[in-house]
Amino acid sequence: MSNLLRGGFRVLNAEGARSTRRTVASGFSLQNSCPGIAPGEMVKAVSDGTVIIAEAGDTTLLGVVKSVSYVGTDGRRIYNAMLPAGYTYAGGAHIMNPLAPIIEVWEGPGLVYEGCMDASVADVLTRFQQGFNTTDLTATSATSVDSVFKTSLRTLNNSVQTGAANVRILEIVQAPDQDYSAQYCRVKFTINEGIDSLNTNASGV
Questions:
Q1: Which of 103, 82, 86 is nearest to 149 (CA)?
Q2: Domain ranges of the chain
């Protein structure tokens, strides 16, 4: 049996949580040939208040994309979409601009997420134990978005992180369809204190 690569990251404790409407700068660019921003992606806020995809090694994370919508070439708003890299629009980069894309983001301290672990070694349980406390996002790539179903395919890597690790694994998801000796084992995780851009006091005070 093998595990399926699920659609990026999702929030598990959405009840009582909030999603915030964000946007991107016109003509935004992405690294590593990533084709666009899709639901299930991890994003960060940048200095102008817009969001961009969070890359491996980033020291501030905002949260996970809940939904994406933007205005198509025919003037109609497209929902349940992937926002293509380099998308341009007229006017300011703020959500009051009717032409700006809307990126709904699950954000806030204490949220628990689920995602797949990109463990290419023989025994995921061994790597999970070694990297139990902290790990990182995988880097974006040309295949980090499912362009058919319009969802992110980002995962957590299987490296033991020290220093500026950005997420903490809480537990492996226990389910009948999990193959614990295969790649893409699903885990629960949270953003580390001091890495969450809404909770930047690393001391936890």
A1: 82
A2: 15-107, 113-191
